[in-house]
C-alpha cells in the first residue's frame, strides 16, 4: 500500500484501488493550503473524483484559488474535482422536512459526485403522511433510499415498510429539547420495526452516500 507524506498528512494513494474511490478529505481543522496540497496529491495519483467535505464558503474559495477547475456546492459544503460519470444506480434522498435539507443536500451531492443517479424527495415527514404516500412510487423505483429525518426519526420506519430496496437512515440534529440533538432519532432508527434498515451517524449525509456507493460497487463486480 502506498501513501504520500506531506509532513502534516500522509495521503492514502491506494484507496481508489482498494475501494473504487480516492480518499475523501475531511475539511474541518485543516487550512486552505493544507487542503489544496492534499487535493493536488490525490488528483495527481488517482483517476476518480476528489472530494472535500464540510468546507465553508470562504475557505472553499481559497482552496479553489489554489486548485482550479473544482466545484463548490454551498448547501452541502462540498468541494468536488473530476466528478464521476453518472451510472444507472439510482438513489432517492428523502428528507422529512426543510430543516433537514442541508444534511439531505450533502447526501445528494456526494452521491452525485461519485457517479450515482440522484432523485430528491423533499418534505415528506410523517406528520403529514399523505405527502410520503404520494411519493411511494418514486421511492419504490430507486435502488437505494436514503432517509434523512430528525425529531423522532419515524420516517425511516415508514419508508422501510413501503420499499423493498435497502434503506439508509440518517438521523439529524433537528428538533426540540427531547430530541437531544439527534440522539432520539438515532436510537429510534436503530430500534425500527422495519427490518434491515442501515443507520449512519447523526447529520452524516456523507456517510449515507458512501454506504450507497459501496452497495453500487458490489453490483458492478464481475461475477
UniProtKB/TrEMBL annotation:
Q: What molecular functions are annotated in GO for this chain?
A: hydrolase activity
A Pfam family this protein belongs to? AIRC
| Lineage top rank: taxon | Bacteria
Q: Which residues belong to any copy of the PurE domain?
A: 89-221
User: InterPro entries recorded for this chain?
Assistant: P2CMN_synthase_LarB, PurE_dom
* Record-linked SUPFAM superfamilies: N5-CAIR mutase (phosphoribosylaminoimidazole carboxylase, PurE) (SSF52255)
Residues spanning the signal sequence: none
Q: Which GO terms describe its biological process?
A: 'de novo' IMP biosynthetic process
Entries under PANTHER family matching the protein: PHOSPHORIBOSYLAMINOIMIDAZOLE CARBOXYLASE-RELATED (PTHR43064), SLL1489 PROTEIN (PTHR43064:SF1)
Descriptive protein name: 1-(5-phosphoribosyl)-5-amino-4-imidazole-carboxylate carboxylase
Q: Which organism is it from?
A: Amycolatopsis rifamycinica
